[in-house]
Amino acid sequence: xxxxxxxxxxxxxxxxxxxxxxxxxxxxxxxxxxxxxxxxxxxxxxxxxxxxxxxxxxxxxxxxxxxxxxxxxxxxxxxxxxxxxxxxxxxxxxxxxxxxxxxxxxxxxxxxxxxxxxxxxxxxxxxxxxxxxxxxxxxxxxxxxxxxxxxxxx
Amino acid sequence: xxxxxxxxxxxxxxxxxxxxxxxxxxxxxxxxxxxxxxxxxxxxxxxxxxxxxxxxxxxxxxxxxxxxxxxxxxxxxxxxxxxxxxxxxxxxxxxxxxxxxxxxxxxxxxxxxxxxxxxxxxxxxxxxxxxxxxxxxxxxxxxxxxxxxxxxxxxxxxxxxxxxxxxxxxxxxxxxxxxxxxxxxxxxxxxxxxxxxxxxxxxxxxxxxxxxxxxxxxxxxxxxxxxxxxxxxx
Lengths: 154, 234
Description:
Mean pLDDT of chain B: 74
Largest sheet of chain B: 4 strands, mixed
CATH architecture of chain A: 3-Layer(aba) Sandwich
Oligomer: heterodimer
Number of strands of chain A: 7
Number of helices of chain A: 5
CATH class of chain A: Alpha Beta
Distance between the termini of chain A: 36 Å
CATH architecture of the largest domain in chain B: Sandwich
Strand content of chain A: 15-25%
Strand content of chain B: 25-35%
Order of helices and strands of chain B: HHEEEHEEEEE
Low-confidence stretches of chain B: 1-6, 26-75
Helix content of chain B: 25-40%
Number of helices of chain B: 3
Structural class of chain A: alpha/beta
Helix content of chain A: 25-40%
């Protein structure tokens, strides 16, 4: 019973709803807006400079992004730390090609109901939030690929 | 712009219900026999390679195409490479339906905006940019009567759209009749790629009609500097 309740709590309430817009400055100084990628499948990964698993997840997403970018996949990493210096240091040592946004607005975590990191959400071509994944294990990469292929195929 | 009258709202609602009913009757036509669709299509050739760590399920395709459903109606005898006539007609109906839904959505949006921001209290602030040789806009903060009402980060695409003549409505709100003050802070890259922050302010009188204000960024060629001004559209 407790397990069932815990599983229910794991559900993500925003699935099926329009993704909240998000704009923040990237590491390279350019601003990136999620809604500008309407028409593409967008993966938004929320990360923290204190989290080692985030680094693994970002690396996995980078591999996926390189493979599926031509099919219309965009990956955006969003930092949720207050400590900008630590976030920048983390981002500069992460060898990923997709934009890592550093100074996300304070309401970002609340808008996307981020309750732990790493966490990622998938936004479909029409801007609807379709899936969410909390935490990351090595085998999750295959799950992401399977799910994203299905969304790209729609 | 249509006046938001009660009969119009009723008319829109009736139309919405009618289209929803029509859409509901059209949906089963799409739902029939999904198994009959072939698992692969010509578009497979353009699909990116599957990740080495995750072999794709047999017959799965990355980008599905509508042509994949052609095999579902063998009785229509279509010409090679063309969908059957009944599918075409259905497709046209769906396209018409989509267009009507978009039109209806647009009308409802206008109606909603007129209800939320009536003309007698409405204040809108627009941003425009001319040339932009000396300034690359990055963000804008707006304060009305010393209260921050908008903070907008511009992406390179948005800044480019402004340079091409686009006008961005950065704020839409309500203000009571009387005197108010608008302060705008512009941030970006100035001459020689230096960080640049400037402000502009305007005291304006809000009357009984809607108020439109324009934040203009122009280049002052003689000084080699950008210029920021606020224009009150009477």
